[in-house]
Design goal:
The protein has 364 residues and is an alpha/beta fold. Helix content is 39%, strand content 16%. The protein has helices spanning 20-34, 61-64, 74-92, 111-116, 129-137, 150-156, 199-209, 222-229, 245-254, 270-277, 290-294, 306-317, 322-331, 334-350; strands spanning 2-6, 38-44, 53-57, 98-101, 119-122, 143-147, 165-167, 187-190, 213-216, 237-241, 257-260, 282-285, 298-301. α7 (199-209) crosses α12 (306-317) and α10 (270-277) crosses α13 (322-331).
Length: 364
């Protein structure tokens, strides 16, 4: 198939990844190409040049509009809308069999566009007002939508999802996250260093439990980093940097437990399955999709309770390291994920032979 992949523009689609959304888009492009598909990545122009890249914007917008994501900035909104509108027009004219939309933009959801190119839209964020109406209005024979977990699907459609929407769990290549037989007694945490990811609570829990802790990941919120994290660093608490995948896998494999501390309704939790693949049991917060992802591979407690998290660490450490690894191999591999993507593409393409869906409602 000739496949267009439309990415979010906040960060480049290139390692080391700014977050799970960027990682998913990169691995989708890499995995589908390896399966013999012709893939064009529509992303910021500073994304990975190893792919066939059609730049939606010259550079990622965090570089041009730093710190303005989620701030309602009119300049950023106009920039992003113009870039996506032009990209959608190029996709419509590009002879693509299917579009996999990961953009979080309302524009690829328009029915005139999904009728033109069969589309799979993957939702990567909890529901929010700027996108909710357009998502709910968009199901059509040639449009499939996915959430990253059952909890995420319920959040978007609390009264029941339409038949065109389903769960698409993220997946990783287990070979890229090699299993380590034993750890050194320390804890690890990885993710975007932002308040919603709860690194400050991981630090508090590790101190209570008397475990060394290393944090890994990009600093997304400099103010939070300076106020809540930097004063806590030193001694048994350290920051290991923002590492590329192989280096991060090696560091995770040396630890004995992974602290997973979402303070928002986490749609999935890619960092957790990366650590689990390396053999780390999880002590974490039961928020969003955490229970669905971690299952028997960890011990979860109410969100934002660092004392309860500290108490959960010994229970997590008692879980044999093969348990988290086996859970990943059973549920969250890249091959399983790509198989499901290809099935969704086939469904969207088959919808082109069905009668047209009703005319769309007027936007609010």
């Amino acid at each position: 198939m000739r496949i267009a992949l439309l990415a979010h523009l906040r960060h480049p689609i290139a390692p080391p990844f700014a977050g799970g959304l960027e990682a998913c888009c990169w691995h989708l492009a890499e995995g589908l190409t390896a399966r013999g598909h012709e893939v064009v990545l529509f992303a910021s122009g500073d994304s990975d040049p190893r792919f066939s890249l059609d730049p939606v914007s010259p550079v990622h917008h965090e570089k041009r509009f730093p710190g303005l994501e989620h701030r309602g900035d009119p300049g950023l909104k106009a920039h992003v809308d113009a870039a996506y509108a032009a990209a959608c027009d190029r996709i419509a004219a590009g002879g693509f069999d299917v579009l996999h939309n990961n953009s979080l933009s309302r524009l690829p959801l328009e029915r005139r566009r999904t009728r033109s190119v069969p589309t799979v839209t993957s939702l990567h964020a909890p529901p929010y007002d700027a996108l909710r109406w357009f998502v709910h209005d968009s199901p059509a024979p040639t449009h499939r939508l996915t959430a990253t977990s059952a909890a995420h699907l319920r959040a978007w459609w609390p009264e029941g999802a339409p038949r065109e929407a389903s769960v698409l769990h993220n997946g990783i290549d287990p070979a890229a996250w090699p299993y380590a037989e034993r750890g050194d007694g320390s804890a690890a945490w990885s993710g975007r260093v932002a308040r919603v990811k709860g690194a400050h609570l991981a630090i508090a829990a590790a101190r209570r439990a008397g475990l060394p802790l290393t944090l890994f990941g990009p600093v997304e919120e400099p103010d939070y980093w300076e106020r809540a994290i930097v004063p806590q660093l030193g001694g048994p608490i350290r920051y290991g940097g923002h590492l590329p995948g192989p280096a991060l896998a090696a560091e995770l494999g040396r630890a004995s437990v992974f602290l997973f501390t979402p303070c928002w309704d986490e749609p999935f939790g890619l960092s957790a399955i990366e650590a689990m693949a390396c053999g780390l049991p999880v002590a974490g917060f039961t928020r969003g999709a955490a229970q669905e992802v971690v299952g028997e591979a960890g011990c979860l407690v109410p969100s934002e309770d660092d004392a309860a998290l500290a108490d959960a660490i010994p229970a997590a450490l008692a879980i044999p390291r093969r348990v988290p690894r086996e859970r990943v191999l059973r549920l969250f591999t890249r091959d399983r994920w790509l198989d499901r993507c290809e099935a969704l593409y086939a469904e969207a393409r088959a919808g082109a032979a069905l009668p047209p869906s009703p005319a769309p409602r007027a936007a609010p």
